[in-house]
Amino acid sequence: MGRDERGAVARGARLHEAALALVGDHARAVEAVRAALKPIHDAAAGRELDAIPVARLQDVTEGRLRLGNVEKDGLRTVGAVLAAGPYRLRRIPGVGQRTVDQMLAAARRLSEAVHETVAVHIDVDRPEPSTTALVMALQVLVEAGPDARRAVDRAAALSERIGPLLVDARPAAGRFRMLLAGQEKKARALAAVAGIRSLLDEAEQTGLPELLAQASVDLLRGSSSDVAAWVDFELRSAEYYGLLAEISGRLPDAAAAEGFLPEEIAERVRTQQLDDSHRRVSLRGYQAFGARFVLAQRKVILGDEMGLGKTIQAIAVLAHLAAEGKSHFMVVCPASVLVNWTREIEARSALRVMVLHGPDRHYAFADWKGRGGVGVTTFDALRGFPAPGGGEVGLLVVDEAHSVKNPQAKRSQAVALWTERCERTLFMTGTPMENRVVEFRNLVQMLDRGVADSLGERDALAGSVAFRKAVAPVYLRRNQEDVLTELPSLQQTDEWEELSAADEDAYREAVRAGNFMAMRRAAYMRPEKSAKLNRLREIVREAGESGQKTVIFSNFKDVLSVVKEALVVGPTDGTKPFGPLTGGVPAGRRQQIVDDFADASGPAVLLAQIQAAGVGLNMQAASVVIICEPQIKPTIEHQAVARAHRMGQVRPVRVHRLLATGGVDERMVKMLEDKTRLFDAYARRSAVAEATPDAVDVSDMELARRIVEEEQARLGMTDGVPTAPE
Q: Residue 17's pLDDT is what?
């Protein structure tokens, strides 16, 4: 036993110490978060208990308690009962020891339930010392990032392997120890030294010593200041809340996070490995499950509600497959989100990305075919590219996949051909079924004909369980309310306005002409006397006074022009309008407008055509949303609102729908109620409505004609000729 052996043991001991130190540094950082969280969580639970009427104790005890005297004594909430304690309760006339025991036991049960479910919301507009401490503690871990987490995991694994070897190798640490050791100990020591050398070589080859050192520095650095921590939280709140949920153990309900999949499929997904070596961002638990679902099931629809991070789940799948050696991937999306996709892939992964769009798209396609990477293209451009050979493309991602629900459309046929030729396909859509089950079946048909053939109207009518079971092999959907407990509140208000005399004249002209679209925008055509426009300016002014940003949606370009002019010349406290963002604005320019809006200091307004901006663009800089008129499809409004109310939003979102009484708006709201219920039944809650899908399917043309005819009859006009939607 010589110097080389002693040197190996010494180096192994130093590496072991570094690994243990890192694990300890991480544990202390986590404990700092828990310590900062506890008083905030306890206070939130206390507020919940103080809002629960004492009568709820009857529910817990199945009506056995008599609480009349307790309420008369001033203890009107469960929180008050817990605060009173047994001595105070025992002194209430007519309350015996048995009642006190039952009352406190019931109150503690409610308290435990509240503590398990209450969510902590961090208010960026009203920072307090307690929330500042929590944000600063979280920033240490967020700044350290995924590399630190990987380093901690590797450090823990190394400790488990090298620790026992160092114990066995102790005789080899000194010359005399080895001389005094018996044959068995010597043999064990030599074997341990060989194992340590192997681990040291492995660590050197993978850069582990440097990784451990950097992670320790990152964890010990701390937050530079409370202001820096708050700014970082506002920019990366999703990462902060994800860590908070993980550390607190208050994760979403497992069944909800797994989309209520049948157990046999869920178990197969859980066992699927997920390589993160090419990924630069951590995943929430439900996001990791979604990525595993795509890998395990190979050709699927990810139907997560908007705002849950479908893009990052797709990137996680791309990164995993790249780590496995796959070289070519294709993303197909609307032109409006080409820039967003390229930015996300570049920022969140180490993958090479190429835009296959525009006049040079065929040259770019040839380059992608030769060098590999992630090609990002549009539905129309895809039609001009040759379909790949079998196994050539590791993953085809189709964003806003409901755009290819019509099998007769050329874009749908192109996507179907690529899907057939690709090993794996991921359809992404927050609205997989807008009006009919048959449209959802058309998407499934491209992925798995067997599942599609088995999915009939009977499955829809049988109820949500049958529907879920039928589509489970290819469909995963989670809802915001189930998995994002930290999402700020969403308040939706219908702002009903009486039409002014000028508005009424413009509306009657549109009805007389039988022009449905003119009827919808008539309330803005006399801007100097417009009731809707006056209310819109008030909302913008109130938001500006609070320092909030506002996004204004309309279906009509001319309405947006009127609104912009009104905001420029009107009394809105100098709130700067951006846009309008319309379908005619190039994709790259759309993203730049949104970025400029988000970067503007103080209040600002973004004007956007609802169909152009309701797809793919993230607008969580806005906390006030104004919708100028009701939309023909409820999903259009859902998509638009979800652009602001999504993961990453740190402020409550207020949505104002501007509606005019007594005319087209009222009739549209009434007629669309059934459409909204249908969407909720299948796509949002997956609990099927009582009526058949076709019974509530109202096409755009039918809806327009019916409303025009009814309005002409109401206003005594029978000579108008309804026109189709423009």
A: 93
